[in-house]
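Section 5.1 Outputs to date
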Amino acid sequence: MGKDATESGMARPLLHGAVVVLVAIVAVDSTALAAGLPQLDATKFAPQVIWLALSFAILYLLMARLALPRISRVLEERQRRIDDGLAKAESLRDEATRILETYEAAITEAQAEAQTIVRRASSEFAESSAKRHAALAQRLGAEITEGEQRITEAKERALANVLDAAIEIARAATEKLVGEAADETVVRGAVEHVLKDRGR
């Protein structure tokens, strides 16, 4: 259909040109014929018209059989290249879309895995911290208990030393005041009674 339309489109201007030439020839003055222009002689129009029609037919056949098919092939080749380029571009676009989807899926998976790793590390850290805290609390508790025990022992030793010193001082004071040595058991009982009253 494209070839016929091209041929008819090219034939129309040629026919129009031939008609214009014929009208111009008819309008030429006979003096021009006398001046030696036989192609403008109206009596010789018939052979000229035949040769014109024959030349036109040959030119038309040459155009239709040689030039127009080549032009048509060039246009078809150009259209084929354009179609191939469009198909390749569409294929590349589809491939780029697939790659983008794969990349986004990989990013999503990596983010999910990173969140899992962070949660696991946080849980492990919390568990380890709780264990360390419990161990530290136990160790500190043991040290506090041991310290309290040492303090109690030191207090008891200090109180025993104070008791002994108080008994000795009381005996010495009694001996100086009374003039004779007091019984150690009596002095001890009196000192213990006084210390117990003050401890209350």
